[in-house]
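Help wanted!
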Amino acid sequence: MTELIVRELQVKLEKKLIVNDIYIDLSVGQWICIIGPNGAGKSSLLKALAGIIPSTGEILIDGTNVRDLSERDRACWIAYVAQEPVMPAGMRVFDYVLLGRTAHLKMLATESPKDLEIAHYVISELDLNDFIDRDVATLSGGERQRVAIGRALTQASPIILLDEPTTALDVGYQQEVLELIDKLRKEKKIAVISTMHDLTVSGLYPDRLMLLADGQVVASGSAESVLTRENIAKHYGANVTVIDHVSGPIVIPERDRL
Amino acid sequence: MARRISPLAWVASAVAVMFTLTLGVSIGAVSLAPLTVWSEISSNLFGTISSANSSESTIVWQLRLPRVLLAFVVGSMLASAGCAYQGTFRNPLADPYLLGVSAGAGLGATIAIFNGSGSSKILLPLAAFAGALGAVLLTYSLGRSAIAGRSSTALILAGVAVASLLTAIQTLIQQQNTDKIREIYAWVLGRLSTSGWNDLAIITPYILVCIVVLLRYRRVLDVFAVGDEEALTMGLPVAKARAAIIVAASLGTAAAVAVTGLIGFVGIIVPHILRLIVGNSYRILLPLSIIYGGVFLVLADILARTILAPQEISIGVVTALLGAPFFLFVLGSSKNGSVT
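Answered by r_m:
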């Protein structure tokens, strides 16, 4: 059972403190969502965990310090899907998804039949068979996210980081992508850390929310405990009403004068 | 699967290579029949009886064949280096010439000639290599830290600046040593004419090693296509891989220009035409660039020898005449001059 433990994580960029004093405990099958106003450090936190930007503090996976690992070994533990994944013009969906096997290949090796098989398996699981030969640059927003998630699944890492996976999508695609992530983390025992923009949506699927403001965690726990009128007023400077609903708290912006 | 070259493409490539090599050796002041050419080559390789007379024999074996093979090897290297640069910098306009590598090699070679090492078959390529590597590192660090960040435009501008600087220093050295100008100038313009088997023997090992190294990185070049950040999270040691590719491409380019002087645009023209035909995967582009880079430079050399015959144009002039308009075409057809 894979477990991610983060202690006292800190990110500094050009001497400026971007993210400070982050603690995370996450087991496979769980989903933590990081929310917070623009500039709170959500993406930076995710990038630090992915190893893209430098950070200090402990990041342990099953007791192994991630900082001691090579790029390849780290990638075998943690996969990352960028907010807007780069879709190289002229690359086919299959070849793009296959890139996920990089973590499992020596740098100068080429893919074995087993790697191709894994990519095919992921593609059929995500219902991508119909556009396996499509140029990734021609895909729509929702298709891009699915293909990028497919690449992360091909990487077969127990932890997946998703930076705002639904921000660019309309409500239909949002649901489709989030349902997919939810299904995968439960079936495949994957631990998910995502950032999210839409507060109501962030309360629907993840187990826990972490509210980040100025790089610090200011609230964390269930959606009901984090998405309160007071928290949102204080940290977003927004005037909202929160309505309880069976699927989670619904956050509605309010107008001062009616 | 578009990750492998089809058997048909291999056959077509083999035919293209044999055809161009034969054409290159046949055409010249004295035209030779292809049969005579191959009969002479076979006689030298396998000891069969040649149908060529003694002057034809000299033309084939001592003059034209080494020159044609040199053109092929250098063309292969320049095209595969350009292809590799384009992959690792994610920029379809990257070319050894544009990133200042060739100017760096030129400065290195000029200093070597100035120091009286111009006739040294070891020091000249070494000096050219050192210059090439220094130039590309300078361009890369300037391009990254430039205001525009990592955009491909900043990189090309940095390359232009580095090339101008190094060329200026080179000119300064030339002016101080006017007695060596002819020697330096002949080198700078690019020449295949003075080559014999010797030149070919010197650079082929360097180039072969570099091409083999680049070929082994062909899958990695495809990984670079998603950008540094995502490539890193997929487990690619980005800095290490890029450094290895730059060293191999620069070493090979340096070896090539050390013998032939500056021959530009091969690294853009060949991979780009191939991109239009076979797509963007470096697993296909790189091997085909090696083959058709060779074919292209042999054909360019035929043009250089025949357009103003009996006079000969510098090969670097021919590739620039073909390449510069082509460069503008690529610039215009790729959105914002970049694929990133």
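OP: Thanks! One thing I noticed: The CA atoms of residues 26 and 34 of chain B lie 6 Å apart.
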